[in-house]
Specification:
heterodimer, A: alpha+beta, Gyrase A, domain 2, 8-stranded mixed beta sheet, 4-stranded antiparallel beta sheet, 6 helices, 12 strands, disordered N terminus, B: alpha+beta, Cyclophilin, 2 domains, 9-stranded antiparallel beta sheet, 20 strands, disordered C terminus
Chain lengths: ~270, ~350
């Protein structure tokens, strides 16, 4: 049985990015031509395009997932990807590792080196007042911008969901301009509200975890990335584009109260 | 028909076989840590292995039902009685309405299960009933909670028992190499494969720590490893090189290096090892590992065939636990002898 592949038209990347500036420095390396295809447990193969972060490997991973998803390979039951690798989960009663490895090897040849155009763009309202963005001044200073300009800078970016993970549905959004390449703070923030925009290492996370974090709280959305009681529990897919829109604290308060939308977010699908 | 939790131990949740298909969105399968225990419970009750059960970590509680139903206790062996009469492990029993099922601490094993003939019928969330605390699905059960139960289609069916295995005692755990195994130097891999570990008392549904006296098992460049996909059974090294075997509710991705993966056949052993139980890890090659693979459907069929009628009412056998039901070394007619 092919599970859920048909319901995954979007590309999906999984993977909390616990990377840092040091890892990101590898991104100029040239990738090897053929990916490594390695057993991960008895019922999956990991197709790894690079061991370190690389935009090319990320693009190939995204493209490869699309290629594999449309193939409906017998015995393949689930696909999940990280930044630079795709996990292909199979039913050992329906196929075997050697057969699947051959198929994946053939499919991995000649992948494009640039990420495909996003099919969906999410427009998400966010508040940046002191109450909702306690660490904005600090982060803005590290980025070398006055706080108002930092907000405009974030509003101006079209970010991509480059990974989902750490907590269910939690998206890692990238990449911000170089000036946002700031390390995590050394002290952890013990609690962060759901929907918080937090930043580090040129990324923004829409926080969904009940866990401490070293990333800085620079804004607040009312968007829920995981709604287990709904028919579409995970609104975002990796590969989606995201734009944030600055709203006043007063507007934000009413958006948050309005339960008819998901935090006022609007999803536009490219035709 | 309802189940009432008269008194709840510290970590009781509703579990089933979990949710598949959501790893891409960061949600692991979840479900029971000891999946074999759910298959055993369903085999004993002639029930659907997809039924939801109660999972009890370390300690049980007191329970009552509003209508007569058969139950089975599987997984960790826990002190258990119904109105004072001991309830043997790995058997089906009739629990009458109004009786009190009391379950105490685990005598061996870590995760105990109560299966009900009609299953727990709480509303489905994303097509399953499993509680996944790390994802905010469901919650720990508390004293006074009531849960809906499906009716027992045959409450007076003959009681059954299943010969139990020895998966609570630790022992050799077979592992295969994974995508990050070669990040570890050969001497570290050797040290890992020759070390004696103890199942730590630090464990939960996400993973269980394995303690050893020696130095940690660190890898090359472990602080800059890119996060990558995790499989259940992966053995993850923390920054200090302390191994954790990832269980049902492990994260889907992670940045800590993983030295290998426990094969599915040995996962019940890892999950159920009592705190302090001795553990050793042994790398096996893929061919040997593949030969151990048995689908859960086939495991269930084998368990159905292994079920034996319990010819005496277990209430009449207060010392049943002392019977050698479990090793296969008995002729199988112990219970028929006077």
């Amino acid at each position: 049985m092919i599970v859920r592949l048909s319901s995954l038209p979007q590309l999906t990347i999984v993977g909390a990015i616990h990377t840092n500036s040091q890892t990101m420095a590898h991104n100029t390396h040239k990738d090897q031509a053929a990916p490594e295809i390695l057993p991960l447990g008895l019922d999956s193969l990991l197709v790894r395009f690079s061991r370190t972060w690389s935009e090319t490997a990320n693009a190939k991973t995204i493209a490869f997932k699309r290629v594999v998803a449309v193939q409906s390979i017998p015995g393949v039951i689930e696909l999940a990807s990280s930044l630079t690798s795709l996990q292909v989960i199979f039913d050992p009663m329906q196929t075997d590792r050697a057969t699947l490895r051959d198929v994946l090897q053939q499919l991995s040849a000649g992948l494009p080196e640039a990420a495909p155009t996003p099919e969906r763009t999410w427009h998400i309202p966010a508040a940046f007042g002191p109450e909702y963005a306690p660490q904005l001044p600090e982060a803005a200073e590290l980025a070398g911008l006055p706080p108002e300009e930092a907000v405009r800078d974030i509003e101006a970016q079209t970010l991509r969901v480059i990974a989902i993970g750490f907590a269910p549905g939690q998206p890692y959004l990238g990449m911000l301009p170089e000036r946002w390449d700031m390390p995590r703070q050394s002290e952890m923030t013990e609690s962060m509200p759901n929907g918080a925009l937090i930043t580090a290492v040129r990324q923004i996370v829409l926080f969904a975890a009940d866990a401490p974090t070293g990333w800085r709280h620079i804004g607040q959305s009312a968007f829920r990335v995981f709604q287990p009681d709904t028919t579409e529990p995970f609104p975002l897919q990796a590969g989606d584009a995201i734009r944030f829109h600055h709203v006043s604290d007063t507007e934000f308060a009413s958006i948050r109260e309005d339960k008819t939308t998901n935090g006022g977010a609007v999803c536009k699908v490219a035709s | 028909m309802t189940l009432t939790i008269l008194e709840a131990g510290p970590a009781i949740t509703v579990q089933d076989m979990g949710r598949t298909g959501w790893r891409a969105q960061g949600l692991s399968r979840g479900g029971a840590v000891d999946r074999l225990a759910l298959l055993e419970g369903a085999a004993l009750l002639g029930a659907d292995p997809a039924n939801a059960v109660l999972e009890m970590t370390g300690f049980g509680g007191r329970f009552a039902v509003s209508t007569d139903t058969r139950i089975a206790l599987t997984g960790a062996v826990m002190d258990a009685d119904i109105d004072g009469q001991p309830v043997p492990h790995n058997c089906s029993h009739l629990l009458h309405a109004g009786q009190v099922l009391r379950i105490g601490g685990a005598r061996s094993g870590s995760f105990g299960y109560i299966s009900f003939a009609g299953g727990i019928t709480t509303p489905l969330v994303m097509n399953a009933r499993a509680t996944q605390l790390t994802a905010g699905i469901g919650r720990l059960l508390a004293s006074g909670d009531t849960l809906p139960l499906g009716p027992d289609p045959d409450p007076h069916a003959a009681p059954m028992y299943l010969p139990a295995d020895d998966r609570r005692a630790g022992g050799d755990i077979r592992i295969i190499a994974g995508p990050q195994t070669e990040y570890f130097e050969p001497e570290i891999l050797d040290a890992f494969a020759t070390s004696s570990f103890q199942r730590s008392s630090r464990g939960n549904r996400q993973g269980v720590r394995m303690d050893t006296d020696g130095p940690g098992f660190t890898s090359k460049g472990q602080l800059t490893i890119l996060s990558d996909m995790i499989a259940p059974g992966d053995i993850q090294m923390t920054g200090d090189g302390v191994p954790y075997v990832l269980l049902a509710e492990g994260q889907t991705t992670g940045g800590y290096p993983r030295i290998g993966t426990v094969i599915p056949a040995d996962m019940p052993k890892v999950g159920q090892a009592s705190p302090g139980a001795p553990i050793r890890f042994r790398f096996i090659d893929l061919d040997e590992a593949d030969a151990t693979y048995v689908s859960e459907a086939a495991q269930f069929r084998a368990l159905q065939q292994a079920c034996q009628p319990l010819l005496r009412d277990p209430h009449d056998i207060p010392d049943l636990l002392s019977y050698q039901l479990i090793s296969g070394a008995t002729p199988g007619d112990d219970l028929e002898r006077p």
